[in-house]
Amino acid sequence: MKTQETTSSLDALTSLSKRRGFIFQSSEIYGGINGFWDYGPLGVELKRNIKQAWWDDMVRNREDVVGLDCSIIMNPKVWEASGHVGGFSDPMLTCRQCRRHFRADHMDDLIAQSDWITSLAEAGDADEHGMLTLDRGKLERWIRKRGRKQAKGMALVKDAETHLDAVARTIGEEPRALRDVLVVLGMPGLPEDSDPMPCPFCGGDLTAPRQFNLMFKTHIGAMEDHSAAAYLRPETAQGIFCNYRNVLDSYRIRPPFGIAQVGKSFRNEINPRNYTFRSREFEQMEIEFFCHPDEADTWYTYWRDLRYNWYVKLGLQSSKLHLRDHDPDELAHYARACADVEYDFPFGTSELEGIANRTDYDLTKHQEHSGKDMRYFDDQTRERFIPFVIEPSGGVDRAALAFLTEAYREDEAPNDKGQMQKRTVMKLHPRLAPTKAAIFPLVKKDGMPEAATAIYEACKKAGITTFYDEKGAIGRRYRRQDEAGTPYCITVDGDTVGTGTVTVRDRDTLAQERIPADDVPAFIAKSLQCE
Ligand code: ATP
Fold first, then answer.
1. Residue 2: pLDDT band by 50, 70, 90 thresholds?
2. Is the distance from the beta carbon of residue 234 to the nearest atom of ligand 1 less than 6 Å?
3. What radius of gyration, in Å, describes the C-alpha atoms of the chain?
4. How far is the centre of ligand 1, averaged over its atoms, from the C-alpha of 486 (Å)?
5. Is residue 340 lining ligand 1, measured as CB closer than 6 Å?
6. Which end of the chain is more exposed for a tag (fewer CB within 10 A), N or C?
7. Which of 431, 442, 425 is nearest to 509 (CA)?
8. Which of 311, 305, 309 minimizes the C-alpha distance to 325?
9. Is 353 in the pocket of ligand 1 (CB under 6 A)?
10. Is-contact 52 283, C-beta < 8 A?
């Protein structure tokens, strides 16, 4: 029945998300606001299901992890101890022409996506190693045609006569790597505090990298002076460290144990982009797992693999999901090991979650700054030690985007007349699907609506999110549910009243089977089990 499937492009996904109510731009009626997103009726259910699946699997169904819910604004000393006030900043470049801001560590990605740089590379006859030969004639032609349109901020384009000789002399006819060509192009006439790389959008001069603090600042109370300054948390983790002693002293638990938290975090990202992937307000799901230093390596491997497999279990294909161990020179100075779970998004392979062995760094810092003893006393071994921390830290919005990307398919399904027609279907795992089942009476008569309503009520009573729909042709109703990601459509037809059975249509295989109407809640509940 199925024909060839197409997977998602970001445009197609964005448009479906808006059309069907997964994700909207924040404050859209006022033109939106960069880096902020809203989740519509289907999106909010998807997000809740992701968080619930995480909470059930990481907290409720384990003996060694407990939950916590901390305030978003904390004593500013927390952020001094954690290093965020001093260090939570990214080097940033600003284009002097178009005023865009870029993170220095994102320049390579931006160069690869830039229209004008691509056209320049094409004009430069790249060989199989990506080495360009850019002679003066070609460069002049490029400036006149593409450069004027695509890189209008570039000194070389604005005033070719002044700069061309210098550039042509430096480039010569030798093949060069693209980055080297760009550096030369960015050079002529640059002020001293500039980066030689031209702006990937307009070709203009970029400032040298400058530190930019990513924390949103606010003030507590009526006075807006320095003493009233506070921050919106940029991660949920620090709230956990600050409560580590409270949990230890109030709850009967001892290392190895974890504290988990799900909640909003805020970062004033320089360049929010790629849909919800890099937002300024987002949700995190974090665990700080406290253990004896000698056991930290084992626990690190355990959590790294467990977190990777969690995404696979919920439907991300392992061919698109990568576990990337950081090289030693990539590690933060306090971390002993770190791995990213990465997913092949339509815009490239990017981080979904990080798992790190943070050693005793955080608790030691809080011990130093607060003066409170963070050591754990093991009364069996009589040992006193600051636990090491393994931190799996994931983003709810990035997980939602990965699950939506993975789910999006275009294929064909038969319409009411049995003819094959294109359909868009969201193949979300039943556990994550916003609606688990849709109940349809085939027509609005002969007792069908009553029988369908009874099944709807039974599902609701069993805690299953169900949608009742009696309007329109049955094929149309199926299509709407396919786009919403509903795994099962239950149809009550003429035979139901006599036989007590209904048709169950499977969203993915399109197979239809008859089952007793009374079994519907149990049938759906079974599909929600993950293993
Ligand atoms: P990146 O390098 O992409 O900025 P990061 O390494 O700074 O991410 P962490 O500080 O490790 O991210 O945060 C843990 C998780 O929180 C990330 O894996 C991601 O899922 C999520 N996250 C971080 N920043 C953002 C953001 N701006 N928008 C959405 N999710 C985010």
1. very low
2. no
3. 28
4. 30
5. no
6. C
7. 425
8. 305
9. yes
10. no
- Quote the crossing angle between the two packed helices 361-370 and 237-250, to the nearest 10°: 80
Which amino acid residue places its CA nearest to atom 1 of ligand 1? 351
Max Cα–Cα distance, the chain, nearest Å: 90
Whether the pTM exceeds 0.90: the reply is no
Residue nearest to atom 22 of ligand 1 (CA): 395
Contact (Cβ atoms closer than 8 angstroms) between residue 259 and residue 291: no
CA angle 78, 79, 84 (to 5 degrees): 155
Ligand 1 proximity of 354 Cβ (cutoff 6 Å): yes
Query: Residue 271 gets which letter from DSSP?
Result: S
CB neighbours of residue 174 within 10 Å: 10
pLDDT of 473-491, one tens digit each? 999 999 999 999 999 999 9
Read off the pLDDT band of 8 (50, 70, 90).
low
Which ligand 1 atom minimizes the distance to the CA of 341? Answer: 18
Burial 410-440 (b: 16+ CB within 10 A, else e): bbbbebeeeeeeebbbbbbbbbbbbbbbbbb
Residues constituting the chain: 531
Ligand 1, closest atom to CA 393?
Answer: 14
Confidence band for 497, pLDDT divided at 50, 70 and 90: confident
From ligand 1's centre to the CA of 394, what distance in Å? 7
* Ligand 1 near 109 CB (within 6 A): no
Question: What average pLDDT does the structure give for the chain?
Answer: 91
Tell me how far apart the alpha carbons of residues 500 and 515 are, in angstroms, rounded to a whole number.
Answer: 9
Give which of 418, 459, 427 is closest to 440, Cα–Cα: 459
Band of residue 530 on the pLDDT scale cut at 50, 70, 90: low
Give the helix/strand (H/E) hosting 526.
helix 520-527
Confirm or reject: Cβ of 257 under 6 Å from ligand 1: no
Q: What are 9-51's pLDDT values in tens digits?
A: 899 999 999 999 999 999 999 999 999 999 999 999 999 999 9
Q: Is the CB of 392 under 6 A from ligand 1?
A: no
465 within 8 A of 435, measured Cβ to Cβ: yes
What the block records as the tokens of 443 is 């027509």
Q: Give me ligand 1 centre to Cα 28, in Å.
A: 25
At 167-211, the pLDDT tens digits run: 777 777 778 888 888 888 777 777 777 788 899 998 888 888 877
Nearest-angstrom CA–CA distance, 292 and 225: 43
Ligand 1 pocket test, candidate residues 274, 351, 362, 396, most atoms within 8 A of CB: 351
Residue whose C-alpha is closest to residue 262's, from 281, 285, 244: 285
Ligand 1 pocket member 395 (CB < 6 A): yes
Q: Whose CA is nearest to atom 8 of ligand 1?
A: 351
**Whole-angstrom distance, CA of residue 260 vs CA of residue 257:** 10
pLDDT digit string, tens, across residues 39-87: 999 999 999 999 999 999 999 999 999 999 999 999 999 999 988 887 6
